[in-house]
Amino acid sequence: MAILELSGVSKHFGAIEALNGIDLSLERGEALGLMGDNGAGKSTLVKIIAGTFPPSMGRIVLDGEEVRFARPVEARQKGIEIIYQDLALCDNLSAALNVFLGRELIRKIGPCRFLDRTAMNARAAEIFAELKSETRPRDLVKHMSGGQRQAVAIARTRLVDPKIVLMDEPTAAISVRQVAEVLDLIRHLKTTGHTVILISHRTPDVFSVCDRVAVLRRGRKVADKPIADSSPEEVTGLITGAIEGA
């Protein structure tokens, strides 16, 4: 049974049609590359899945149960985490404090309450080790590379062991070595049974780590097929409109 199914999902912002009749299905442990030009509807689609926007029409079924999220916290409670392109990290805090941001561990001594930094550092270290990342819990985020920042953002999602991780352009504007680190993190998520939706403009990244590719153009899905049955050239043609559909 699919872990996530979208049927006829559409989204309108006034007279603007951002998405039209999107059908999509994902299995547990599968990585889907979601591609398309700017304004194709990719971010709108993942924000609907993550509970930021309600769909104007259509159904979302998660683990066999129809869901309709009014707020992102409701999607998180059902096991859906999203990592935005800007990562939403606090540069002045350590990696561990960013991992636990909004979910801080508290230690009580009498009537006083303190942040349990020792416990948060220890748990963050365990998650970074699981992700095979060299990121250290006590390091400040402002001193980190792009790849290390992505590791912090991904580690934050692992606190609750989500079913689905949505990633918005995680390899944009970082070095080749850092891209390799992020792709390794995505591979690790797959091997641990997490479903991943990867928004990316980088065709090599999608073909490196994803099992399937879906292409949106002007709010409509024009392709959804296994990576093995497609090619970077075909995807480029689908994105630009040189190829109508596949």
In words, what does this structure look like?
This protein is of the alpha/beta class and 246 residues long. It has a single domain (4-240), classed as Rossmann fold (3-Layer(aba) Sandwich). It is 32% helix and 28% strand. The protein contains 8 helices and 12 strands. The protein has helices at 42-49, 72-77, 95-99, 117-130, 146-158, 176-191, 203-209, 232-240; strands at residues 4-13, 16-26, 31-35, 57-62, 65-67, 80-83, 106-109, 112-115, 164-168, 195-199, 212-217, 220-226. The strands form 3 sheets. The protein has a 6-stranded mixed sheet, sandwiched between helices. A 4-stranded antiparallel sheet has the order 2-1-4-5, with helices on one face. Helix 5 packs parallel to helix 6. The longest helix has 16 residues, at 176-191. The two termini are 25 Å apart. The model has no long low-confidence stretch (mean pLDDT 92). InterPro entries: AAA+_ATPase, ABC_carbohydrate_import_ATPase, ABC_transporter-like_ATP-bd, P-loop_NTPase. One of its GO terms (molecular function) is ATP binding. This is ATP-binding cassette domain-containing protein.
Set out the fold topology.
Blueprint: E1 4-13, E2 16-26, E3 31-35, H1 42-49, E4 57-62, E5 65-67, H2 72-77, E6 80-83, H3 95-99, E7 106-109, E8 112-115, H4 117-130, H5 146-158, E9 164-168, H6 176-191, E10 195-199, H7 203-209, E11 212-217, E12 220-226, H8 232-240
Parallel strand pairs: 3-10, 3-11, 6-9, 9-10
Antiparallel strand pairs: 1-2, 1-4, 4-5, 7-8, 11-12
Helix pairs in contact: 5-6
Give descriptors for this structure.
4-stranded antiparallel sheet, Rossmann fold, 28% strand, 246 residues, 32% helix, alpha/beta
